[in-house]
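thoughts on both lines:
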Amino acid sequence: MALMRIQLESDRKTARRVMELHLAGRADRDSVDAAREAVWRHGRTPAGEPVFVGVSNGEPVRLLYDVEVYLEAGGPT
């Protein structure tokens, strides 16, 4: 399996809220689902749940997720 970094465009307010949820040990379902969908759009199959790793420092702000993916596009055999 490989690790894929997903960057989701966001705004500062949303990024702050997602970071606060992460620090409280919770997840923002909408952005987790969006990260998973981004993996599918890139032609890969997610092998696990997206893991929030932080927020970019630039503009536009991006939510950063790491997602384990199967190396084959179809997933496990």
Summary: DSSP finds two helices and three strands in the chain. Residues 43 and 73 are 6 Å apart (CA to CA).
